[in-house]
Amino acid sequence: MSAFTLDQLKTILREGVGVDEAVDLDGPILDTPFSSLGYDSLALLEIAARIQNQYGVAIRDEDVELLATPRAVLEYVDAHLAEVA
Amino acid sequence: MTGLAARTADTAPTAVFTGIGVTAPNGVGTEDWWAATLAGKSGIDEIGGFDARTYPSRLAGEVKDFDAAEHLPARLVVETSRMSHFALVATAMALDDAAVDPASTPEYTMGVVTANASGGAEFGQRELQKLWRGGPRDVSPYMSIAWFYAATTGQISIRYGMRGPCGVAVAEQAGGLDALGQARRVVRSGAALVVTGGTDSSLSPAGFVSQLPTGLLTTVTDPLRAYQPFGTEASGYVPGEGGAILVLEDAAAARRRGAGRPYGELAGYAAAFDPRPGSGRPPALARCLRTALDDARLRPEDVDVVFADGHGTPGHDREEARALAEVFGPHGVPVTVPKTMTGRLYAGGGALDAAAALLALRDQVVPPTVHVTRPDPGHGLDLVLGQPREIPLRTAVVVARGHGGFTAVTVLRRTG
Question: Which residue ranges traverse the bilayer (chain B) (predicted)?
Fold first, then answer.
């Protein structure tokens, strides 16, 4: 199975939780904390739920708060996609 | 106790309205809505938001052509229900109208007190359907904050950094006035500015069905004949959505920041509760009217117009008409029900009537009551029917009665 990409994550952000007016998701956001992108803990829960629904990777609630940046989410999902595969 | 109350009233700051924002079935935007209201333009129609053809009641005052995403940040739209969308949009209008810049106002001097009666019915139904179709993981985490009564107050507070006293009034249709009364308390306790008023939206299928068991909604299907408060053909009411948000300020603080002429003063307020049904005691409204007038230090003959609750069911209409005749005398004061153009907006109703009363004071014109083909002469009311009435207006009384016995009255007075 191919890797989970930043573009796929951005689609989830746009469709699922919206984008803050002051944020450019197409900028260099890989290592930007979600809090700086305007996403709170409830937004992260929604993002995690959508990843599970669309990619079959379950992110445990206690892991959600550890995923502070888009890069952390991509690495987490990639690692678990490999398990699924 | 009386002495303390009297002294407080003597030295308390005067609370004045300096901004109005409206999202109503017959107009979005204060001046558009006001022009429609004076023109007698109704927003009551067959329900368009879902197929209501098999329901016993089929009419509503829906706010049509309202896209929250056009007015609000995308992040905020996903977190909030339609009731809050109306309030957030109206708040932006009201702050703009008052020429207030919250970012340059000390955060702890600004409060938020709104009213809500129905909760986030539309959001809640959507998420329940997701739960049923897809399971718990499909339910938005924002369900936890979007549905509840205080959601609107909280979101306004967060958006504008208003960290002074905040609260929510939940008293069915009376809540929109109770919020104003609480906002005045907040001003009197030292706040410079309070965002207040109320909105509701319960016109999703689940929200609508939950209103039917009261038996108070009309089953008449002609939008021009359905909601006829104080009429011989009164058959119940039509529900609506939307409301109004108002900016209430300490008059001295408003002057200091260079605000324009206020719309009017919140001169009097009272709340009361009806006696237990079957007790034989009269409804609380006459007492509530007198208490509010006492609070404003005015007499019944000082009142130039009454914006009535106008329930639209014969029993409620009779009770209200009796109380008005008892306090003001038969045909003693012009009475109007502009909500005949919107339906009853629950928490939004009192707030929207207060907005109408303030604009009536500004423009010296009473907006009309529409669709009442034959006013019941037994009510003894001077109902302003069909056409607006231009008369000198200095003092307006607004009445709101909520299901279950909630009763509230405000007295609004022209300033200057």
Answer: none
Given pLDDT bands bounded at 50, 70 and 90, which one contains residue A2? low
Question: How many cross-chain Cβ pairs, A to B, lie less than 8 Å apart?
Answer: 35
Does residue A16 belong to the interface with chain B, where contact is any CB pair within 8 Å? yes
Could you tell me which of B207, B115, B211, B129 has the C-alpha nearest to residue B168?
A: B115
Answer whether residue B369 shows pLDDT above 90.
Answer: yes
Interface of A with B in 24-83 (CB under 8 A): 38, 42-43, 45-46, 49, 52-53
The CATH-assigned architecture of domain B264-413 is 3-Layer(aba) Sandwich (3.40)
Nearest to B241 by CA among B201, B206, B210: B201
Question: Any idea what the CATH number is for the domain that residue A10 is in?
Answer: 1.10.1200.10
Class of domain B2-256: alpha beta
| Residue extents of the structural domains in chain B | 2-256, 264-413
The domain in which residue A49 lies consists of 6-20+28-84
What is the pLDDT averaged over residues B78-105? 97
CA gap B137, B389 in Å, rounded: 57
Contact A16 B78 (CB under 8 A): yes
Domain assignment of residue A1, yes or no: no
B235 at A interface, C-beta within 8 A: no
CB A19 to CB B138 under 8 A?
A: no
Interface of B with A in 250-289 (CB under 8 A): none
**How is residue A44 written in tokens?**
């992260």
Confidence class for position B351, pLDDT limits 50, 70, 90 = very high
User: What does each C-alpha distance from B209 to B51, B214, B316 come to in angstroms?
Assistant: 12, 10, 22
Q: What is the pLDDT of residues B263-313, one digit of tens each?
A: 999 999 999 999 998 999 999 999 999 999 999 999 999 999 999 999 999
